[in-house]
Write a structure and sequence with these properties.
Distance between the termini of chain A: 28 Å
Largest sheet of chain B: 5 strands, antiparallel
Strand content of chain A: 15-25%
Largest interface: A-B, 48 and 49 residues
Helix content of chain A: 10-25%
Oligomer: heterodimer
Distance between the termini of chain B: 50 Å
Radius of gyration of chain A: 22 Å
Number of strands of chain B: 16
Radius of gyration of chain B: 23 Å
Helix content of chain B: 10-25%
Number of strands of chain A: 20
Shape of chain A: globular
Chain lengths: 469, 541
């Protein structure tokens, strides 16, 4: 059996900042990634139809797997599609992508041990495993930061192994979390004035978590890390905030796409995703990742995610930008977390060097001044590396029926809903796919989208649910 | 069974069960170089700047009636085709004319130019950052002979086309009649080289999409002739093996376009903005100089540096994805077929991800290989080609695979249906004398030769710019692990050219790299080719 340890995303050296805890932190993260990969391998197969998803750390067969890249655009395709018929489609999509939207009903205050009012939160609408934030002085953009860091890693830094591993797991108590490290990284990368108080809930909060048993409300005591804190939403971006932009989603997607299906054209990423229901058909990322994985699986190969497990900024096209007098902006790009040489960039900053004498607002992006971060995001590509190996189980399985199907918006060809087979497409409310365009709309009072706990409504203390899947 | 009727100009395809109805194209409105294309041996491109709207209108009034329509050009094509079928010599082609305008050129005629939805067009090519050389490098836009700055972008780009260069002298005079001498800022002759090759020695323009649409209300009067066995489901998606059918809105405004998730059904009607754009098309023009000596020298060097047991010519074939006579590496990875153009049904019949299976096609005595004695009701088979997902036969960085990944799925943009929506209609032509074979002549060669790249489309940012920026210049797109398009791609990262690609050779990965450029942009622009009615409206007639 392989003895390697799953390193943190991009092999980032955050753990080394706490030398006395570094080993435990590395072991804890390794245990969590193992738990995810093992869970997916177990979930997407059974005795009669073995899983084609595997955890490479458990593989002791000789030889290395072949790797291939799935690459896609950082700018959200769902937003582009929605506004394709607009009179001014380009500016409208840029504006929408920079507009935060409400995150309704998933977090509520806790009052006397019971659910209180919903909390106004926002997340970015950028759902391609890459998000950006434009730092402005008034209207003018000074800097644009891009991140591909999953929220789980930050929850781990803050809360440690108990956040992910259930009681009784041998690594449950491996690392207790370190908010001071989280604060340190925010200060370094987002704003020097960020404090632990800014980054944590000031009061007890209930978080709705989807599990295999339905929605559960989990108690987050005051002082817990708030992933939607102001330095990660309204004032900056430290890690991903869109609900779909998680490592868990990535692993589930890869696992789900290994299940061979009867019917869909294997060359049609959208048909595959609708059939298997492993993600959102309107994105670039999910259909492309799924189709790449399916390509391996349909050859009978087993599929895994090579270390370090993560989704990364792969590249940026600096050719698209120039200064007001045609100046090269090669030096405007800085990788501040991750590794450019291995195409594992976690954090990328676009800011004009001071000595050039102008700022981002003066930059020309394809002939137009940069007014939105989305104009720069058009130059960024994201990727996921997949690994495939013949473990001898490909011939044992069988293709299974599609549980899902596609419905297409009659008014917006290309906008698609993934539904259960047999769903009446005419009943779909397509407005729920609409991106928001205005800040006011995003901050409107939130809907009570999640029902309160059953019974007397009393909340339980936070614990890792049996399954979040 | 009702089949294709090769002798008919009115019935140009079979009845195919389940095929969608295709729109009737406005054949007297669409300019003839957009569809079906001039494709003459000689062309002359004129770039004109006007000193004001009045002069522009006067000029347009004089030339508008000479602009060739789809109907006119197509009729001559039919005449040519009939002569070919009868074994007669090619009938003479009249002089054809096409007119297109830059954004600033359109502003001379109308006030609503900024309502055009395609921002790339409004910005213009020089502003778009196509990966072109930075300051200080040959090919920087400050050195362009046309279009490098707002002041050198022609208001109007005129294309004159004929089979004989001498035919163009008089139309050329007429095209600039009444204009001050300074108005003509660009004048470039183009000529098709022997064998239809470009200057590096490869047959060009072999793969074009088949445009859907009918020329009349006749049920089967298609613009693009259909050859695939109507009993075969591929008759729904392909006009001939390897030539996909594309909805006309991808090339001409006002018609249904391609859908990103369906190869058969039409998408939304493609609107450019103002109504006067209907029946018009964007024209992307790039004047690309080809440095043949550097191309050959660098391929020789890469062979030597890597130790690959390949000749430079064999490596060049891998950079292109075809052999010089046109045989695709996917169909024959070793060498050119004896006469690859003899069977036009086979020359483009290949995929990359999947093997293509044999397909039956209508016999067509005008399509090359057919015997005149064949009757129209006969079908014959066309052999397929194996798959090559990893890029062993045709590397993932090969030019034809980069700009047209065909069935590769997923690309960085989506599936194979999305790729169909990226296709452009190329109308390029070479300029300059062939590179001399004689070493003595090579020493004194001025290097003035290249390709006038011309391509029609309706969404520059989703079509040409994706092919150019994302795919040719990108290292991991449209497929991963590819490298850049070493043939045409531009990359000056780090202030110097460092283009790289990975060749799979007998189980190992061989890195190819060069910091030299052999395709150098020397001019260009984004233009709009209006309908005949719009030309007349702009002219005030």
């Amino acid at each position: 059996m392989a003895t390697t340890v799953h390193p943190p995303p991009a092999g980032i050296d955050d753990f080394a900042r706490r030398p006395d805890m570094a080993e435990a932190m590395a072991q804890g993260w390794d245990a969590i990634v193992n738990d995810w990969l093992d869970g997916a391998a177990g979930y997407y197969g059974d005795e009669t139809n073995p899983s084609l998803f595997y955890n490479a750390q458990r593989d002791d067969t000789p030889g290395a797997g072949a790797t291939d890249d799935a690459v896609w655009d950082a700018f959200p395709l769902a937003i582009t599609k929605w506004f394709a018929g607009d009179d001014d489609p380009e500016r409208t999509r840029w504006r929408a992508a920079d507009t935060p939207r409400a995150y309704p009903g998933r977090y509520r205050r806790v009052v006397d041990g019971r659910l209180g009012e919903p909390i106004d939160l926002t997340h970015r609408q950028q759902d391609e495993y890459c998000e950006w934030f434009a730092v402005r002085d008034g209207e003018a953009i000074r800097r644009i930061t891009f991140t591909s860091e999953a929220p789980e890693y930050w929850m781990y830094l803050a809360h440690g192994t108990p956040e992910f591993l259930p009681q009784g797991h041998p690594d449950h108590d491996r690392f207790a979390g370190d908010m001071s490290l989280v604060e340190e990284l925010y200060q370094e990368h987002v704003d020097p004035s960020a404090t632990v108080q800014d980054l944590t809930w000031p009061y007890d909060v209930a978080q709705a978590v989807s599990t295999s048993q339905g929605v559960r409300w989990l108690l987050r005591p005051a002082g817990s890390y708030n992933p939607f804190n102001k330095w990660n939403t309204t004032l900056g971006a430290m890690h991903l905030t869109h609900p779909a932009n998680t490592l868990g989603a990535e692993i589930n997607l890869a696992g789900g796409a290994t299940v061979r299906r009867i019917g869909p054209d294997p060359d049609d990423p959208q048909a595959l995703i609708c059939c298997s229901q492993y993600g959102d058909a309107n994105r670039s990322s999910d259909p492309i990742i799924g189709a790449k994985v399916y390509e391996f699986a349909s050859q009978g190969l087993s599929v895994s995610l090579p270390d370090p497990v993560g989704l990364y900024i792969q590249s940026y096209n600096q050719d698209l930008f120039a200064g007001p007098a045609g100046e090269s902006l090669e030096r405007a790009w800085t990788v501040t977390r991750g590794d450019q040489a291995s195409e594992q960039v976690l954090r990328l900053v676009f800011e004009v060097p001071e000595d050039l004498g102008f700022t981002v607002e003066d930059v020309q992006a394809g002939g137009f001044p940069v007014q939105w971060g989305g104009q720069v995001a058009d130059a960024v590509k994201i990727h996921l590396t997949g690994m495939a190996k013949d473990l001898g189980v490909g011939g044992q399985g069988r293709a299974v029926e599609c549980p899902g199907a596609c419905c297409e918006d009659p008014d917006r060809p290309g906008v698609v809903a993934v539904v259960d087979v047999g769903t009446d497409c005419a009943q779909i409310d397509w407005t729920r796919f609409a991106p928001v365009l205005e800040q006011e709309q995003a901050l409107a009072p939130v809907a009570q989208a999640v029902p309160p706990p059953e019974g007397d409504g009393t909340l339980v203390a936070f614990a890792v649910p049996d399954s979040r899947r | 069974m009702t089949l294709f009727e090769p002798d008919s100009d009115l019935v140009t395809g079979p009845v195919v069960a389940g095929a969608p109805e295709e729109p009737v194209l406005h054949v007297d409105e669409i300019q003839g170089n957009v569809l079906p294309g001039f494709n003459t041996r000689h062309q002359r491109l004129l770039g004109i700047r006007f000193d004001g709207p009045e002069r522009a209108r006067t000029w347009l009034r004089a030339i508008a009636d000479r602009v060739s329509t789809l109907a006119a050009v197509h009729e001559v094509r039919n005449v040519r085709r009939r002569a070919l079928c009868r074994g007669e010599s090619r009938p003479p082609t009249p002089v054809w004319t096409s007119v297109a305008f830059s954004a600033d050129g359109l502003r001379l005629f109308t006030a609503d130019v900024d309502e055009i939805r395609e921002l790339a067009f409004l910005a213009g090519m020089a502003q778009r950052g196509l990966g072109d050389p930075p300051p200080g490098f040959p090919g920087h836009r400050s050195e362009w002979v046309v279009g490098g700055s707002a002041q050198t972008v022609p208001h109007a780009l005129v294309t004159l086309a004929a089979d004989d260069a001498a035919q163009l002298a008089s139309p050329m005079e007429a095209a600039i009649d009444g204009l001050p001498a300074a108005a003509l800022i660009f004048d470039q002759e183009g000529e098709v080289l022997e064998g239809g090759r470009e200057h590096f020695g490869f047959r060009d323009g072999l793969s074009q999409p088949g445009v859907r649409g009918r020329l009349s209300t006749g049920e089967r009067h298609y613009l693009t002739r259909r050859y695939v066995d109507p009993e075969d489901s591929r008759a729904l998606t392909d006009s001939r093996p390897g030539q996909p059918l594309i909805w006309p809105g991808q090339f001409v405004f006002g018609y249904g376009g391609q859908r990103a998730n369906d190869a058969v059904l039409a998408g939304e009607v493609v609107a450019g903005g103002p109504d006067w754009m209907n029946d018009g098309s964007f024209l992307v023009f790039r004047r690309l100089r080809q440095d043949v000596a550097t191309f050959r020298g660098e391929t020789r060097r890469m062979c030597a540096d890597t130790g690959l047991p390949l000749t430079a010519a064999q490596l060049e074939g891998r950079l292109v994805g075809r052999w010089p006579e046109g045989t695709a590496l996917m169909r024959n990875p070793e060498r050119d077929d004896r006469d690859p153009m003899a069977d036009r049904m086979a020359v483009n019949y290949f995929g990359f991800d999947e093997a293509t299976t044999p397909v039956r096609v209508s016999a067509d005595p005008c399509a090359g290989i057919e015997d005149r004695a064949l009757v129209s009701s006969e079908l014959r088979g066309v052999q397929g080609a194996p798959q090559d997902d990893p890029g062993l036969r045709c590397p993932r960085f090969a030019h034809i695979r980069k700009v047209n990944p065909r069935d590769v799925a997923p690309t960085d943009k989506g599936g194979a249906e999305d790729t169909l929506g990226r296709a452009i209609m190329r109308r390029g032509i070479t300029w300059g004398a062939p590179y001399p074979d004689d070493p003595a002549a090579q020493a004194g060669d001025d290097g003035d030769r290249g390709l006038l790249f011309l391509a029609y489309q309706t969404r520059i940012s989703k079509q040409f710019e994706v092919l150019n920026n994302d795919w040719m210049n990108g290292s991991d797109a449209p497929e991963g692990n590819a490298g850049q398009d070493l043939l045409v791609g531009q990359r000056y990262a780090g202030g110097k050219g460092d283009r790289k690609a990975t060749l799979l050779w007998e189980g190992t990965e061989v890195s190819l790299a060069t910091d030299r450029h052999w395709v150098i942009p020397t001019g260009g622009g984004y233009f709009f080719t209006p309908s005949i009615s719009t030309l007349r409206a702009f002219a005030g007639t």
